Amino acid sequence: MIRRADQSDAPAIAELQQLTWREAYAGLLPTPLLDGLALPRLYRTWRAELIRQDGDLDLGIFIAETEDGKALGYATCGAATLQSQDLLGDGEIHQLYVRASHQGRGLGRALMLACSRWLLMRGLFSGGLWVVKGNERARAFYESIGGELIGDRRDSMQGWQIPVVGYGWEDLHELAGLESEVPSWL
């Protein structure tokens, strides 16, 4: 099941971020950055983001979970940041992460559909995202669903300069029209 997250999901999303970042970025991001992903800080951050979602009509935070409520992935999207707008377009998928144990089963695709459809409902017709340059698995996924390589830059994460590449969709209708079902793991 994929649904819009609410404030009660802050602990689950914080745990997912800590786990999925350590899975995805081991060897790609500096170890001190990954070691610094403390759950209390992540929990406060997600609680604030989920409160902000209530007042920001463009912000969408989605969680993917099993029928019994086990969180498997999450995604966030909204209006593109000023820093990204020239390259990405109107909308931006800020984060999309799925537990490594559940990748390759259609869950990332379903989260991308939720984000693209959310952005379109908000009147944001083009968009994209940034990916850590060495994250080949994520890059291959975004290319497989029609993402076009549109540029690169360096992002600052807690004082570290991280090379990232941008993928974009000139018309999010193309992405939103992809077929996908929320996979079942029962």
From TrEMBL:
Gene: mshD
SUPFAM superfamilies: Acyl-CoA N-acyltransferases (Nat) (SSF55729)
Entries under Pfam families matching the protein: Acetyltransf_1
GO molecular function: mycothiol synthase activity
Protein's recorded name: Mycothiol acetyltransferase
Root EC class: transferase
PROSITE patterns to which the protein is assigned, alphabetical: GNAT (PS51186)
Keywords: Acyltransferase, Transferase
N-acetyltransferase domain sequence ranges: 1-179
Entry EC number(s): 2.3.1.189
